[in-house]
Structures are given as structure tokens and as C-alpha cells.
Design goal:
Blueprint (H helix, E strand, L loop, with lengths): L8 E7 L2 E2 L2 E5 L1 H11 L3 H6 L3 E5 L15 E6 L1 E5 L2 E8 L6 E9 L7 E13 L5 E9 L1
Antiparallel strand pairs: 1-2, 1-10, 3-9, 4-5, 4-8, 6-7, 7-10, 8-9
């Protein structure tokens, strides 16, 4: 599949198994890296956006975004690709303090790096310091 042949890219964000209503954007860098991986889908699992970040930013997402507005936590994730679905998933076992989750992003490095996609939650999600958070970002390429 080539990017020119792609008709639609949609996403789903889940937190602890529940689908979260969010405004989602695949960034320009995300589209570029998707295009480079389509010719060799193994590239998704080897090097594509292997970190998930959580934040409190309230700005609406844009294709020009390069980072989360107010990132608080970032963790290494597993990436899988099957049947035109890229899944990026990790579990944050606990947090240093309670916070309100308002944004989630996938990135290619532990610090800095390129933002591939950003979700801006339509409702605040309270996270306690003792909570764990199983974050699953799915990108459907049709």
C-alpha cells in the first residue's frame, strides 16, 4: 500500500480498556513516517513512534504540532501492525502525583523527538498517583 492509495486514516484511543472521546490529529511528521513504513510494514514494529506521552494541555491538536502542550509523563511502548492497524500500547504503573489527563501523544524518542499523533480529550480524566493507566493508541489505515 502506498500513501497515495490510502483513503482514510482514523484513530481510537483507549485508557484502561475504555474508548475515550478525543479530537485526534495525525501530524505532518506522523504522515511522513506512515508513508515511509507502508512499503515495509515491519518498520512500524521496529521504529515507528515507540513512546506514549501523557499531558495536561488544553490546546486543540494541529497537524503542525511537534510536541504535547504540557507533557507530564512518557513511557516506552510496544508497537504492532496487523491488517492495516498500527497499535501503540504501554502501561504506566503509577504516577508521581495526581493529575488531570487532557492529551495523549505518540512519539519516536524518549526525550524530544517527533510527535506522530496527538489526542485531545473532550472531557478531563482524573488520574490518581496510585492509578495505573493502560494506554492503547490505534491507527487504522484504509
Amino acid at each position: 500500500m502506498r500513501l497515495a492509495a490510502v483513503k482514510e486514516i482514523t484513530t481510537i484511543l483507549e485508557v484502561n480498556g475504555a474508548e475515550i472521546d478525543a479530537i485526534d490529529i495525525i501530524t505532518m511528521r506522523g504522515l511522513e513516517t506512515i508513508a515511509s513504513c507502508l512499503g515495509s510494514p515491519d518498520n512500524f514494529t521496529l521504529s515507528w513512534m515507540t513512546y506514549i506521552a501523557l499531558g495536561q494541555g488544553e490546546k486543540s491538536p494541529s497537524t503542525e504540532d511537534m510536541y504535547l502542550e504540557n507533557e507530564l509523563y512518557r513511557r516506552l511502548a510496544t508497537v504492532s501492525y496487523s491488517e492495516n492497524v498500527v497499535t501503540v500500547r504501554t502501561v504506566f504503573p503509577s504516577f508521581s502525583s495526581a493529575f488531570i489527563l487532557r492529551e495523549v501523544g505518540i512519539l519516536d524518542k524518549l526525550t524530544g523527538g517527533n510527535l506522530g499523533a496527538r489526542w485531545s480529550l473532550t472531557s478531563d480524566l482524573d488520574i490518581a498517583a496510585t492509578d495505573s493507566a493502560d494506554i492503547k493508541c490505534m491507527i487504522y489505515i484504509v
